[in-house]
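Entry 14. Structure prediction run on the chain below.
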Amino acid sequence: MSSDEIITFVNGDKSSAMESKMVGMGIYIFYILSVIAISSMFLTVLYRKVVK
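Output returned:
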């Protein structure tokens, strides 16, 4: 990270604010997807136990 990047990061111009918003959305979407994946795996295991 160069000194110029640190300065823009500290000042928080509009482009960096937009970037942080995008990152936040990415983390939120990733969290939802992981929750769906875990719950579907859990339901599959539960379903197999019920069938057997």
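DSSP finds two helices and no strands in the chain.
Filed with the rest of this week's runs.
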